[in-house]
Hints:
By secondary structure, this protein is an alpha+beta fold. It folds into three domains: 47-95; 126-284, Four Helix Bundle (Hemerythrin (Met), subunit A) (Up-down Bundle), CATH 1.20.120; 294-412, Nonspecific Lipid-transfer Protein, Chain A (2-Layer Sandwich). 43% of the residues lie in helices and 11% in strands. It is built from 14 helices and eight strands. The strands form three sheets. It has a four-stranded mixed beta sheet with strand order 6-5-7-8. Strands 1-2 form a two-stranded antiparallel sheet. A two-stranded antiparallel ribbon has the order 3-4. Strand 3 (253-255) and strand 4 form a beta hairpin. Helix 6 runs antiparallel to helix 10 (228-244), helix 8 (174-191) packs antiparallel against helix 11 (263-284) and helix 12 (294-317) packs across helix 14 (401-412). The chain is elongated, with a radius of gyration of 32 Å. It comes from Streptomyces nigra. Keywords: Transcription, Transcription regulation. Residues 55-84 form the Putative zinc-finger domain. InterPro entries: Anti_sigma_zinc_sf, DinB/YfiT-like, MDMPI_metal-binding, Znf_put. Pfam families: MDMPI_N, zf-HC2.
Amino acid sequence: MNSGDGDHQHPTPEPGPGRPPRIPVPRASVEDTGRPLPDLPDAPVPVLEHRVLKSLLGAWALAACSPEETAAVEEHLGDCGGCADEALRLREAVGLLHPAESLDLDPSLRARVLQGCLERRPPRIPVPEWAAPYDAETARLDALLQDFGDAEWHAPVRLRWFRKDEPTSRRTTVAGVIAHLLTVDGMVAVALGLPDPLGEVSADRPTPSARTEAYWRASHFPPTRAVRAPWREQTHDLVRTVSFTGGGTGALSVPYGDFELPLRDALLDRAFECWVHAEDIAEAVDYPYEPPSGSDLHHMVDLAARMLPSVLSARRQAGLASPPPPGRRRLVTAGEPGRSLRLEIEGSGGGEWLIPLDSPAAVGSAEHEVAHVALDGAEFCRLAAGHVPPAEAAAGQVGDRQAIRDVLFAAASLSRM
Length: 417
């Protein structure tokens, strides 16, 4: 350390009695001096007998040899055809013992790891069960975005949904999709008393599509990767807020402009849309993306099935669905059984739902079942997202064809931008 009077320095005291041992100054690495590194001589390849080299072939195939042994074996294989053939057979056998595995993680891995951790040490403030799908899907999408460069953030994405009975779409980018999720998740944030990402602009923007268009227009430039940080922070704030309330806010109403959902269903709706748009993003950058875990997928299907009677009734009032048969046109009292369609969901997240056809006030009834539709769970969700045409969705159909058509188109009508 300089003493302050020019370049004079105090001499370093020599070690002695009562003084701490002298600590030498760290040596500078030759890699930091800019000088070329010295050339090191190649290690000599050991000369081994044929019988020794042949006995090492098994260890070599398993990559268990030392570097010197590996070099000796590989040099020998270039000269000995018999050992080369034997080495090839051993390598093929090792390949059968250790088949190649995909580098993409199992989508249920995160859920299994968390479950194992929570079984050992429960969280001090647990996430409500109805908020867990949103927590999982936002985390999966955030992991997908982690290593995106500028090219990926500006990759074109086409958002797809159904308007009435016609497919429609809107072109944006990966960053634009995250901006869309940010603004629509903001509706849940406002219901919880959290800041609105739209600020004062949101006062006259009650619907998801209107909010998204307003956010896009307010941007001086197309959205960039910078949108990830506020979206990510907002997802954490939502999960943290509902967790600190102990899950008691589940019945809180979240307005969507044309309709309202209780908070527990609104967060499930946001989890569903997060997964759907994550698939849109993954498709745009040519990357595989798996559906949600079976339990989360089941909850998403259940939400859509519970919304179908109201959507079917609204479509009927708009002239987009067939009216009930003459004998069923009277008003149905709440809780009364009525004509029903059995919706069977196969595969992960599967189950069965009886969908009342004549009125949202009716209840599904197996005795009044007039049709049966079977679909895969992920396929049904893609239908509800407007990504699959209704005419191509059902894997199996039995019964009243008009009722089946009405329900499939009602499912597609659940979609929106």
